[in-house]
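task queued by scheduler; priority normal; single chain, no ligands, no partner chains; default sampling; output format set to structure tokens
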Amino acid sequence: MERFRDTIVSALERIASLLLVAIMLITIVDVVFRYLLKSPLAASFELTEVLLSVMIFASIAVAVARDEHIEVTLFESLLTRFPPFKRTVYVVSRLAIAVAFFCLGFWVFELGNGKWVEFTPVMHLPLAPVAWLAAGALLIAALLSALSAIVKRPVADD
């Protein structure tokens, strides 16, 4: 199970890294064209926007899998006194996150189904595949969150 999770996370990290490199290259080419040739790269903002949206959703799944997301520790001192209760809160919160990401992913996927007639303004790229990639990343995040509720146990002195 751990190997499966690591394979998914590794693939998502590679995808997010490639998207980041593509965004950086587009920005570099745009700046060079703008200042040396006095002609910016056409639709660089549009390409960056589309790539960034997919990269963000892939990064959300990685953060969930690695437990590197933001956590609010208002009740941490209370939970450390009752380790079994801490485990229950951990499992329930991860399952709640999984359900939320699953519902959001399904909603974004359905939203993407209606986007076949919508295109980006300059390059006329279809928006449906972008929505589907974001939905897929959210569904993977839901799966990884559910897996962390089942497999991972919080450290006692966390």
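post-processing summary
- Residues 2-151 form one domain.
- The mean pLDDT is 87.
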